[in-house]
Amino acid sequence: MTDNTAGTAPAKDPHDLPDVSGLVVGVLGGTGDQGRGLAYRFALAGQKVVVGSRSAERARTAAEEVGHGVEGADNAECARRSDVVIVAVPWDGHADTLTALREELAGKLVVDCVNPLGFDKKGAYALVPDEGSAAEQAAALLPDSRVTAAFHHLSAVLLQDPAVERIDTDVMVLGEKRADTDTVQALAALIPGMRGIFAGRLRNAHQVESLVANLISVNRRYKAHAGLRVTDV
Amino acid sequence: MTDNTAGTAPAKDPHDLPDVSGLVVGVLGGTGDQGRGLAYRFALAGQKVVVGSRSAERARTAAEEVGHGVEGADNAECARRSDVVIVAVPWDGHADTLTALREELAGKLVVDCVNPLGFDKKGAYALVPDEGSAAEQAAALLPDSRVTAAFHHLSAVLLQDPAVERIDTDVMVLGEKRADTDTVQALAALIPGMRGIFAGRLRNAHQVESLVANLISVNRRYKAHAGLRVTDV
User: Fold this and answer.
1) Could you tell me if residue B109 is inside a domain?
2) Do A229 and B233 touch (CB under 8 A)?
């Protein structure tokens, strides 16, 4: 704040985020635990939310169960009706789902929250997508969308539990354009207890996605629903 | 605690950690910022600390500057005299340093805290070691040592600043053997404000190491010395 020199604009305060209350939030994979949990929290915060699924029928059922004005639609309609589209599909359907929605997602702000993980008897481990990360795969498949990555480290259990009023955790937000990451940070901040923290470009998404394998180990050892806080911010 | 059945031992409390006050802590790369900062904090906590360097002379100078009873030695003597050896060397000297110390590190508890990163004009990015991570490279090069990974996300600036009394952050500890990760967690807990949290096996070390690239982005955006807290633990 104090080091702007004559002729240059003052540095923008990174905590100064846009008003996102008018944005419609779509959730692809909105019938899964993570998608349902995010839909619930955004709707509870007063946001208009549309959950998407391959089946409009299943999406509508999930929307009714979540309540709070959430609507359901097939994935294509969900994408069309939304300003911001959260991708919460399973990793093994990630590429196919996005490829099929390239047109509907053109011009939209896409928020990938998919964690490519494998599981064996020793627990969870990171998968390495050819593109580097799920988010970079999304960016490669959606050249006309503004792709960001966020909401990786949230417990679907806590998100969905109506007895949990605050989710005390930070959301690492990654992307290439400040306006887009600011918007996603502002969305995260709608959920009580949550902050969106800018955490780099998409090329650094892999470690954020795969850190979920470590949080799964934490959960097992401590019988917790672990999340992360960024300190000194 | 409540679900142990007849004939099985009760689950061990993950917060119940061993007394490590008698262990000598060695720091390879103890003349660098990270190594010096860790040496300072452990010595301040009353631990016997030996910093190592390729040059015994430089190690002794660094030890004197750190004070609090820290001693300096060449890397081989540092390894021999220590029970727990923290590897805080630059990534590009990692393999050579460990290969040369295989004998001296045999039987020792090794704690790798190296972050393999590249830097360009867009900032920091993850390098991917052939072995998967620096920690797995250490484990491959040191078959007779007990290799763990920890202390990746600490700010060398905060560690070294005597005006900073508490380092309010968690240390993710990875390893294969519970006794070893418990010991490293107990070491982390010696530093006021710090906790050691078990966060999985070495195969999940890459994302913990490379998350430093994200913290560098956080530091740049927020003018912070970011660290991490694990929530709900």
Assistant:
1) yes
2) no
Decide if A227 and B224 are in contact by the 8 Å CB cutoff. no
C-alpha distance from A88 to closest chain B C-alpha (Å)? 21
Q: How far is A210 from chain B (nearest CA, A)?
A: 6
Give the tens place of pLDDT for each residue, B51-85. 999 999 999 999 999 999 999 999 999 999 999 99
Q: β-pairing, B123-126 with B194-198?
A: unpaired
Q: Do A204 and B217 touch (CB under 8 A)?
A: yes
ipTM of model over 0.90 = yes
Whether A208 contacts A199, CB under 8 Å:
yes
User: pLDDT-based confidence at B7, cuts 50/70/90?
Assistant: low
- What's residue B70's pLDDT? 98
Chains A and B form CB pairs within 8 A to the count of 134
By residue range, what is the domain housing residue B129?
Answer: 17-222
If we measure between CA atoms, which residue out of A150, A146, A232 comes closest to residue A186? A150
The total of structural domains in chain A comes to 1
Q: What is the CATH number of the domain that holds B28?
A: 3.40.50.720
Kindly state whether residue A59 falls inside one of the protein's structural domains: yes
Residue B182's identity, in one-letter code, is D
Calpha distance B180→A141 (Å, rounded): 44
A168–B124 CB contact, under 8 Å: no
pTM, 2 dp: 0.94
Strand partners, B148: B111, B175
> Across the interface, which of B174, B214, B233 has its CB nearest the CB of A222?
B233
pLDDT in tens, B123-169: 999 999 999 999 999 999 999 999 999 999 999 999 999 999 999 99
